[in-house]
């Protein structure tokens, strides 16, 4: 039986680590010829990431899967520019990655029955590691955690920049309508993320979609039924094969996991939710790395208070400006940020006003019956797509076959 080992490397952000760990589990559970190794870069200072990494060491992983924590990169300091820290991290980790991959290859050569190193799956943010894959003569795949629509947006903007000579920084504050193939409707260019509109960050960001052309395939955290237009738009012959393998979620918790069922916070939240009427609570969460400045937080808080709807808010504290070494963190005391009364609109850092947020909340909670109906239906579909016969199940199968059949 031809055995193959795949090395997966996420960026040191909680959502990305969890996703690639789950993909590693799916691969070994899907085919007993596959072995997976996840190389986890040393996190910055995000406590939740550190806790999760420690939980992996304490948990029982599936057979044929292992997780290895890479050493800290000492070359990154507080003087490293925010736009360069990820590329600096990749460069600093390359020697460690090469060392561990060399060990894996050596071990595989000691026995005819041992799995052979078959390739890599890199987080799409660290495709700079493709040089390691090329050095070992191995294929590599990319993993996009952000979905097919955003992936298509990045690829289109990179083509505008590289092939048509467009200066994307000119889109800042521009009302020009952009027609992105992966999106159904056009939108004003000024709504693009700021990292795509600033010269310093743009150069780094465009390296990601530019490198994807060399990937053997791209795994995407989505499913065909959810983003059919976006997925189909990427099947244009110009993009490597797309594998929609989502939704990537943790189906089972253990006592060591972040936010585990054993924690007092988790129990308190569940008890409170159980006491609320069905479908009456709004959940606000912007990811482990998502945070807002003080004035925007106050606008959101004022909108929630005015609406009067029950809510559960995962609120993270923004890091100091320009400090890459600080990640969003928990507030020690919410009173330090939440307003006692409505504040003025005098600060130009407010992106969305309380009135605008309130209108959106009311639309979803009071008038959005059709939206909520679609969400429930999509929830049902998202479970079926991962089962035998489902689109994501089949997509994962195609990926497994490609890995096995093209093993060096």
TrEMBL record:
Highest taxon in the source lineage: Eukaryota
Keywords: Glycosyltransferase, Transferase
GO MF annotations, alphabetized: UDP-glucosyltransferase activity
The UniProt record lists the keyword Lipid biosynthesis: no
InterPro entries, per database record: UDP-glycosyltransf_plant (IPR050481), UDP_glucos_trans (IPR002213)
Keyword Lipid metabolism: no
Database matches in SUPFAM superfamilies: UDP-Glycosyltransferase/glycogen phosphorylase (SSF53756)
PANTHER family reported for this sequence: GLYCOSYLTRANSFERASE
Family: Belongs to the UDP-glycosyltransferase family.
Name listed for the protein in its UniProt record: Uncharacterized protein
Organism: Populus deltoides
């Amino acid at each position: 039986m031809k055995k193959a080992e795949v090395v997966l490397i996420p960026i040191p952000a909680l959502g990305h680590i969890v996703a690639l760990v789950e993909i590693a589990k799916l691969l070994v559970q899907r085919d007993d010829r596959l072995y997976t190794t996840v190389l986890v870069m040393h996190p910055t200072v995000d406590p939740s990431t550190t806790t999760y990494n420690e939980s992996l060491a304490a948990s029982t992983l599936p057979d044929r899967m292992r997780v290895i924590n890479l050493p800290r990169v000492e070359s990154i300091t507080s003087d490293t520019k925010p736009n360069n820290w990820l590329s600096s991290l990749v460069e600093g980790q390359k020697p460690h990655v090469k060392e561990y991959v060399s060990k894996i290859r050596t071990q595989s050569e000691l026995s005819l029955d041992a799995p052979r190193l078959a390739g890599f799956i890199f987080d799409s943010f660290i495709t700079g590691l493709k040089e390691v894959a090329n050095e070992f003569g191995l294929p590599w795949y990319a993993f996009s955690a952000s979905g097919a629509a955003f992936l298509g947006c990045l690829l289109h903007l990179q083509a505008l920049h590289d092939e048509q000579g467009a200066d994307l920084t000119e889109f800042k504050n521009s009302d020009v309508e952009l027609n992105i193939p992966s999106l159904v409707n056009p939108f004003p260019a000024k709504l693009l993320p700021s990292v795509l509109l600033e010269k310093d960050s743009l150069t780094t960001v465009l390296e990601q979609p530019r490198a994807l052309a060399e990937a053997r395939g791209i795994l995407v955290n989505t499913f065909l039924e959810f983003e059919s237009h976006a997925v189909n738009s990427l099947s244009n012959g110009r993009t490597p094969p797309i594998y929609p393998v989502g939704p990537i979620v943790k189906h089972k918790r253990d006592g060591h996991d972040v936010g585990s069922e054993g924690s007092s916070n988790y129990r308190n939240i569940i008890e409170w939710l159980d006491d609320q009427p069905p479908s009456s609570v709004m959940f606000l969460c912007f990811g482990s790395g998502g945070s807002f400045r003080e004035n925007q937080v106050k606008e959101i808080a004022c909108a929630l208070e005015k609406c009067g709807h029950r809510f559960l808010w995962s609120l993270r504290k923004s890091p100091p400006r320009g400090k890459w070494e600080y990640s969003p963190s928990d507030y020690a005391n919410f009173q330090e940020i939440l307003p006692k009364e409505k504040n003025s609109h005098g600060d130009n850092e407010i992106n969305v006003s309380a009135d605008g947020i309130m209108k959106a909340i009311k639309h979803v909670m009071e008038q959005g019956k059709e939206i909520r109906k679609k969400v429930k239906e999509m929830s049902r579909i998202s479970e079926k797509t991962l089962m035998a016969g489902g689109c994501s199940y089949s997509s994962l199968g195609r990926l497994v076959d490609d890995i096995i059949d093209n093993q060096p």
